[in-house]
């Protein structure tokens, strides 16, 4: 039995209005499935399930607004697909009698929903974990046949094949355009940015990066590809940032309760401006493991969903750093305000031709001004400088990205 | 390719020394009983008659002194092969090996190479007890400035010496005592081999057995046993303990997702620990099971035959560790 | 079958609407830079190029992107290549 709570989708979210249920009692849900749409200050966000199981009950109705942390649905004992759940999991209480309507003021909202772990941690080998992520296999339903019952990579592969054979092609949710209240979004930005400037001792660094190599490489690569396979230079910026973070993990994570917590992966919040005002920076997950084509596809998908609606809850809660990139327009440099509880924000200004000294003579080269706003509680300028230098160096060898 | 000939590990080492002496007048052999007695493992029998006392030199029982002489000779332009009877005796020469041979290139700012080769017998199995039987090559593999070789095959026994002599820096060669009598066939014109890469001695897809030196043959035997159970074990012969060929280790583990390290040396702080650590650092996400180790028991090697055997890695132990890593 | 200017203009405006569903197209000055008029960013513009390429079957090399920054310019460019 697991409760699904109204999630916190940002440092300053206090409540959410349930716009639409996408599940009903009796449905099976798996970790990561989109189960509901919640209206927040950031627009309509698709809420994903943390746990797998069968929907026992919906606890609030469409249109209701409840505080963060309120139980909005309950999952019952998993069906046959999850028969391999840990044997030591606490036995489920009897199926819920109709739960009390949560219309009364809910108890003190908790900060964020945490996926309640059922029993001791399952043994899953590192190779199996990575493979499951690649193949999109839910480990909860995989039988472990490795040492001490651990799930190993061959178990995941077998599960993936079984699933593929059994399940018809997943039906795609039609893209829906959902309303976005710019006034509400402005309030959310105001709250987050005020908190950032109040709490985070920012320091700022900037450096100019030569982009001749990157531009030339990109032009050559794009010239021989159809438009849909072409890359934007901001994809190179994202990838270089992600790779540099491997050596500079102190900029990738969050600062909470007086301590820095490294990110679980490199999940880059990619700032997308919203027409008419407003800004949102949802995460692209594991950027350091994506090749440029995959990253471009993710970025394209993200921008499209910002425009049309359909962002996922994990995209709002997971960023471990933010990158803001102006592309070909706008000003030369930007100095960001860190989105709490993150600890760094990188700004790539407009790509523009500049006269630079090259081998003792003036030369015109495409360049970009790269800036870093970082949390002085976690890092200092020297490390920040090394981090920027690393990104600049990576951009000199675009073919390696 | 010439006809393969029947030969032994001992003969291969001897022919490697002979060839080096013939090819390069700067090469000479020095050590306890290498001349008139013919070497305590009979490796240099007959070489005194062939090359004379100038180049096959019996030394007093003073490892520190004659290893130091070897370093001086190397600095002076010769290509000495110093033989130390067994690795336990080399501790008397640690000052020369570690404080001088391994450091001079660095301390002279790159001015002085020490092109010295030291051969030593290592390992247990001959009931020579706790002062003649230990496997201390892992200790030397700890020292920057040294190269550490562990030839296990006839080909490597024949071919590593010349490459080591060509190396501008000190190279230590560890010959396992249980290998000298091992026989097999080798191309008559077998020549120098690389001293940089590990070798996959048997390919397999289910588990990587990583070993070197005297334990190689036990490991290959274990792989045969595993094959009877339907487990395809890959056997990697490290060949070189310093610098370790991590790439080959990681590539093998990435294929099989499981690793068992077999090392006759002790577990604590040894070669097996280093290999397990590198797998954690570089292949963690490839693993389907914890790294297993089969090592020498942490006791001074006993004299009594049954106790000596009990203290060493054996085929059954390797098979059991491989099974554990597969969850069987 | 060759395309008329009107067909191309319709295509440009429709695809623009798809790429930027949240933009206000009524009253758009066809000679104004789309980046200024509609806040079209480089990803939006690339998506527009992709859509036009697919819909009209006209090759648009990357180096020509700057020639398609207004509705009028895009129509003229595509018309010249549609023959």
From TrEMBL, chain A:
<dbReference type="Pfam" id="PF00198">
    <property type="entry name" value="2-oxoacid_dh"/>
</dbReference>
<dbReference type="Pfam" id="PF00364">
    <property type="entry name" value="Biotin_lipoyl"/>
</dbReference>
<dbReference type="InterPro" id="IPR023213">
    <property type="entry name" value="CAT-like_dom_sf"/>
</dbReference>
<protein>
    <recommendedName>
        <fullName>Dihydrolipoamide acetyltransferase component of pyruvate dehydrogenase complex</fullName>
        <ecNumber>2.3.1.-</ecNumber>
    </recommendedName>
</protein>
<dbReference type="GO" id="GO:0016746">
    <property type="term" value="F:acyltransferase activity"/>
</dbReference>
<feature type="domain" description="Peripheral subunit-binding (PSBD)">
    <location>
        <begin position="123"/>
        <end position="160"/>
    </location>
</feature>
<keyword id="KW-0670">Pyruvate</keyword>
<dbReference type="InterPro" id="IPR036625">
    <property type="entry name" value="E3-bd_dom_sf"/>
</dbReference>
<dbReference type="GO" id="GO:0045254">
    <property type="term" value="C:pyruvate dehydrogenase complex"/>
</dbReference>
<comment type="similarity">
    <text>Belongs to the 2-oxoacid dehydrogenase family.</text>
</comment>
<dbReference type="InterPro" id="IPR000089">
    <property type="entry name" value="Biotin_lipoyl"/>
</dbReference>
<dbReference type="InterPro" id="IPR003016">
    <property type="entry name" value="2-oxoA_DH_lipoyl-BS"/>
</dbReference>
<keyword id="KW-0450">Lipoyl</keyword>
<keyword id="KW-0012">Acyltransferase</keyword>
<dbReference type="InterPro" id="IPR011053">
    <property type="entry name" value="Single_hybrid_motif"/>
</dbReference>
TrEMBL record, chain B:
<dbReference type="Pfam" id="PF02780">
    <property type="entry name" value="Transketolase_C"/>
</dbReference>
<dbReference type="InterPro" id="IPR033248">
    <property type="entry name" value="Transketolase_C"/>
</dbReference>
<dbReference type="Pfam" id="PF02779">
    <property type="entry name" value="Transket_pyr"/>
</dbReference>
<dbReference type="InterPro" id="IPR005475">
    <property type="entry name" value="Transketolase-like_Pyr-bd"/>
</dbReference>
<dbReference type="GO" id="GO:0016491">
    <property type="term" value="F:oxidoreductase activity"/>
</dbReference>
<feature type="domain" description="Transketolase-like pyrimidine-binding">
    <location>
        <begin position="7"/>
        <end position="182"/>
    </location>
</feature>
<protein>
    <submittedName>
        <fullName>Pyruvate dehydrogenase E1 component beta subunit/2-oxoisovalerate dehydrogenase E1 component</fullName>
    </submittedName>
</protein>
<keyword id="KW-0560">Oxidoreductase</keyword>
<dbReference type="InterPro" id="IPR009014">
    <property type="entry name" value="Transketo_C/PFOR_II"/>
</dbReference>
<keyword id="KW-0670">Pyruvate</keyword>
<dbReference type="InterPro" id="IPR029061">
    <property type="entry name" value="THDP-binding"/>
</dbReference>
<keyword id="KW-0786">Thiamine pyrophosphate</keyword>
TrEMBL record, chain C:
<dbReference type="GO" id="GO:0005829">
    <property type="term" value="C:cytosol"/>
</dbReference>
<dbReference type="Pfam" id="PF00550">
    <property type="entry name" value="PP-binding"/>
</dbReference>
<dbReference type="GO" id="GO:0016020">
    <property type="term" value="C:membrane"/>
</dbReference>
<feature type="domain" description="Carrier">
    <location>
        <begin position="1"/>
        <end position="82"/>
    </location>
</feature>
<dbReference type="GO" id="GO:0009245">
    <property type="term" value="P:lipid A biosynthetic process"/>
</dbReference>
<dbReference type="InterPro" id="IPR009081">
    <property type="entry name" value="PP-bd_ACP"/>
</dbReference>
<dbReference type="InterPro" id="IPR036736">
    <property type="entry name" value="ACP-like_sf"/>
</dbReference>
<dbReference type="InterPro" id="IPR003231">
    <property type="entry name" value="ACP"/>
</dbReference>
<protein>
    <submittedName>
        <fullName>Acyl carrier protein</fullName>
    </submittedName>
</protein>
<keyword id="KW-0596">Phosphopantetheine</keyword>
<keyword id="KW-0597">Phosphoprotein</keyword>
<dbReference type="GO" id="GO:0000035">
    <property type="term" value="F:acyl binding"/>
</dbReference>
<dbReference type="GO" id="GO:0000036">
    <property type="term" value="F:acyl carrier activity"/>
</dbReference>
